[in-house]
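Handout, section B. The chain below has 946 residues.
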Amino acid sequence: MSATDDRPAAGLDRRTLLKLMGASLALANLAACTKPQEIVPYVDQPENLIPGRPLFYATTLSDSGYGLGAIVESHEGRPTKIEGNPDHPASLGATDAVMQAAVHSLFDPERSRTPLKNGEPASYGDFLRDMSGLSAALGASKGTGTAVLIEATTSPTMKAQLQALRKRFPALHIYRHDPLVTPSSEDATRAVFGKALVPVYRLDRADAMLSLDADFLGEGPGRLAYAHDFAARRRVRKVGDGMSRLYAVESTPTITGAAADHRKAVRPSEMDGVAAAANAALAEEGALPSAVDPGWLEASIRDLQAAGRNALVVPGPQQSSFVHAVALAANARLGALGNTVHLIEAPHDQPVDGDLAELCHSITSGETDTVIVLAANPLHTTPAGLDVHAAFSRLKLLVHWGVYRDETAALAHWHIPAAHDLESWSDRRAFDGTVSLVQPLILPLFGGRTVHEILAAIGGTFDQSALALLRAAWVDRLDETGWKKALQDGVIAGTATSPADVSSLATDLGGLKPRSVARGLEIRFVADPFLRDGRHANSSWLQELPRPLTKIVWGNAALMSPSEAARQGVESGRVVNVARAGFDVDAPVWIVPGHPDGSVTLSLGFGRKSGEVAGMAKGYDAFRLRTADTPWFAEGVELTRRDHVEPPVTTQHHHAMEGRHLVRHASLGEFRNDPRIARGGLPPARSESLYPDWPYDEEAWGMSIDLSACIGCMACVAACQAENNIATVGPQQCELGHEMHWLRVDRYYEGLADDPQTVFQPVPCMHCEKAPCEIVCPVNATVHTHDGLNAQVYNRCIGTRYCSQNCPYKVRRFNFLQYRSFDKEEAGPEQAARNPDVSVRSRGVMEKCTYCVQRISEKRIQAQIENRQIADGEVVTACQQACPTQAITFGDVNKKASKVAQEKAAPHSYALLEELNTRPRTTYLGKVSNPDVGLAPGKAEEAGDG
């Protein structure tokens, strides 16, 4: 954090931290090394460990209980960087922003550090003694009066432990509270053919798609795989290439809608009517009125029918059971079931006795007096109108297990620190049911325990580690060889869930009916893309990462359309009071082109009171308006204009391209008529220059970014920050425009303000051949390297900022303040998250993208040792590696056969602001979309600033 923004207390001394990291090496490679006592020096050198050379381990990170496969880089027992596991079906080698921040959250100094009994520090042994008494009492009463509150989980081991507890203590009750749960798919399949199932999509097979409020590129446990498969069908390099087509109907703007070829915004309550009209059209039952233009709907249905079994209808997880039933029926009629979509038993399915409301009723009625809360934070995420605090205050014993001492932990009689994913042994299922193992990269820094150890203690087992419990759960399925292979590969082969037999699927919608259209203003609740329900609110990396569409940081806002804002008499930044059902919040307005009229979008995840970083963020707590019966959509809303203005902090203040050719795009038809879409109407690039030419005898590094594939998810920005030790600066500095990210993703609107086309453009350093920054530096801190990089020599820089002023791309960041502590004894555990291959910069120097020069150097040294050239694709930048759509290509442009050279030779390749004759090494492939020619948008003014 900055010098002006209070930095969390350090707490843990460096020596203790290094001891913990050194001891972790014994676990990081299960049978491959001995346990060191210190990192420097080693008395006994661990096998396979070479100081300065990282090791890589496969593990699994949790996302809403589901597994995302990861490869974690470890330096001397210290995890430093997350990458995707290419062998895991949910990641396919990619990551998202939350995965990238896992290392940062591991070393968060505000994590819970010790067990607490009635708010006072205690030992874990004291806790086990109390659990011994509880277990004996449960045995005598068969579990009467005791409940366990869990979140959604896919862990086979945890499910087996819960089943064992039920069997041993028949009167024990298990409740589930997950504020982001979306049961509509299971409800719909249960109504249609009698069993609860969830869909798994094959977007790589889909020619035509209709999304009914589904943000499948940005949400859900399969989002990385879906983004990968979607982009694979959108790559155009030559005239004969084809593309899939996506129609999207949305109740709030999403990155999936931004990627669609045709998009319609409708009010939340109108979505059922749209689904009903689509169902009637597919069933040839005549036209039904809906909020979507008949011609638009007819075009989408025509394309779906033409695609047949290669069509796909995707319902939004938050949508009603009726919408999900329509999607099932539509896919069945089209013959897509079993091809582009198949149904499986829900990996998260777990028999429970009720939800949080039923648990509270059981407490207040006197039936339950002991509750064990595992990971959930119900005191923050409770639905409005449900007084969980009052109910839990009546308990004789409340045990809470969690990573932070959050709102629920503060009320608990016992709080036990939870082990982080990178400190744990466990298992998870992916969105398709594939099981992968969670293995620790480091011993628990603060004595955290896994959920398996807590469940074992409840059952009276106190002497087994999480590893022993996990190994026992798989002993019948995996011998020692299979166990080691599963750890090395990151997945357990053959564990994907087989598709359910739905050949007898009816198309009568199971008796489900559409809901009626609401009157008046509506609310659409969404989870924050990075903080989710608030569990990641103490991560400064995620707080400061711009939201894909709004570019807001360190807070949230009430989103509404330009027309609705004018109707309400408000502007961006104006605070309004949003009220319904006796509950209200104050929120600043943020106008978003493409938002439906008649509704306002509120995001969850903010308004936290616990945690210093979380408390620094602005914003409101949307849970105060979210009732149990309306978790995602609500009507009967009153909006009152306040007198004051509190503009949200945003990192992008320009929203239209203002006539400049920044993002060049065309339809597939236009591309086929003239592939040189990037050159349309522009003068030829200049060849003369006063700047010197640079000879390249070895490599000449370059990058190409495919704008047809970029979905604006921000994974690349998060990966760049994690790789390059980029500081977070806090809300005050962001408000001044002092954010430090080396890579940004610009978002632009074109067309009508209420129905625009949205495009994204990642902008790293261009690494110009004729670099304006190099000429003006008075101390030669900005230099041109032998392989074409615009290098920044930090120890020469004196902070004149001439280079930044001379850069037309504005990709340089000046380090204004001492954002990081450089005293090794005071820096605290967060220093361990830094990449040792990249220097940590002090204030007063200019920073920028380096093409991950440390990775280039590593591969060059390795190639020299092996007396060979660097192979094409051997050097992978952090942004490239994280990208789920593989939109970024990097390599040696001197090699004409290299992939990056071929990308740059594509007819729609162009350079940003090439008329300035800077000759960037970073170039773009113009965005190609595939709209229906009969639905071409009319000409209109560009969308204005939001």
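Note. The mean pLDDT is 90. Compare this with the example in section A.
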